[in-house]
Design a protein that fits this description.
It holds the Pfam family NAD_binding_2. One of its GO terms (molecular function) is NAD binding. InterPro entries: 6-PGluconate_DH-like_C_sf, 6PGD_dom2, 6PGDH_NADP-bd, HIBADH-like_NADP-bd, HIBADH-related, NAD(P)-bd_dom_sf. Keywords: NAD, Oxidoreductase. The protein is of the alpha/beta class and about 290 residues long. Helices cover about 55% and strands about 15% of the residues. It contains 12 helices and 9 strands. Helix 8 packs across helix 11, helix 8 packs across helix 12 and helix 11 packs antiparallel against helix 12. About 40% of the residues are buried. The N terminus is likely disordered.
Length: about 290
């Protein structure tokens, strides 16, 4: 592996070409950094059309070829699955940096970091906020915990798809800050759901109320997203991800000896109301289209 600094390029491996991961990988591939990838399904590589990259046949082959191995997967168990894939333990070597861009449990991420440290591999828990739309706009927030030297090396890579990159201290710090953000988002979601319900029952335009409050002091990112990025088609899938994250938040707070119930309970109620809120907005849009 070549020695790298913030002024030199890195060879970056990427696994997880989903709605969020694909545009992140595209941004890396279009930068000065070299993009290498592995995908379980060859058709997943279609999202990289027009972007220079090198494809590898196995995760082990990918891990052996890169300076940084970035994983944008659903949960911590998926990280362990990659690390335990045949050939991968042998491919891990001192100097490699593994980055977890998914959202998970801070304690579990500390355990992953400790496991890798025994092999001389550095680990960053670097979850991102902004979803697929933020990734496509290259406006994500990357929230990072772990080895500071590894963070400094990887920060230029994070810059390719981020509007803000923040270092939050030792391993687990990135996940802790991301879970606090997600709990706040889901608590705000309950406020937005209540607003949509009230506007619909009052018989005033939900879209009009959403627009004016979204631009006023009562606005929030989640209110603006309802009926935009958050549609009925994806609401149920997002509820599953949100429920996973709010329970990670609660577990992390309890592990720290703190009471998660105020934010947790509001967050769960917000998640439960998501499909209703986007359905009310979609119904109003349908009526407006029909009356136009």
């Amino acid at each position: 592996m070549t020695t790298t600094t913030r002024d030199r390029t890195l060879t970056v491996g990427f696994i997880g070409l989903g709605d969020q991961g694909a545009p992140m990988a595209q941004a890396i591939g279009e930068s000065e950094h070299a993009l290498h990838v592995w995908a379980r399904r060859p058709q997943s590589l279609d999202v990289l059309a027009g972007v220079p990259y090198v494809v590898h046949a196995t995760p082990a082959e990918l891990a052996a070829a890169v300076d940084v191995l970035a994983l944008c997967l659903r949960d911590d168990n998926d990280i362990w699955d990659i690390l335990r894939t045949p050939g991968v333990p042998e491919a891990l070597r001192p100097g490699l940096i593994i980055v977890n861009h998914g959202t998970g449990d801070p304690g579990e991420n500390r355990r992953i970091a400790e496991h890798l440290a025994r092999m001389g591999v550095r680990y960053l828990d670097a979850p991102v906020s902004g979803g697929g739309p933020g990734a496509r706009a290259r406006r994500l927030t990357t929230i990072c915990g772990g080895d500071r030297t590894a963070f400094d090396l990887c920060a230029p890579v994070f810059d390719t798809f981020s509007a803000k990159v923040a270092y939050m201290g030792p391993a687990g710090g990135g996940q802790t800050a991301k879970l606090l953000n997600n709990a706040m988002t889901m608590s705000n979601l309950l406020n937005a759901v209540d607003l949509v319900r009230l506007a619909a029952r009052l018989g005033i335009g939900v879209r009009a109320v959403q627009d004016v409050i979204g631009a006023s002091s009562g606005g929030s990112a989640i209110l603006r997203a309802l009926g935009g990025d958050l549609t009925p088609e994806i609401a149920e899938h997002l509820q599953g991800l949100m429920r996973k994250d709010i329970e990670h938040f609660a577990d992390a707070m309890r592990a720290a000896g703190l009471d998660p119930r105020p934010l947790h309970d509001r967050g769960v109620a917000g998640i439960d109301g998501l499909t209703e809120a986007v359905g009310l907005i979609a119904a109003e849009d349908t009526r407006s289209d029909r009356d136009a």
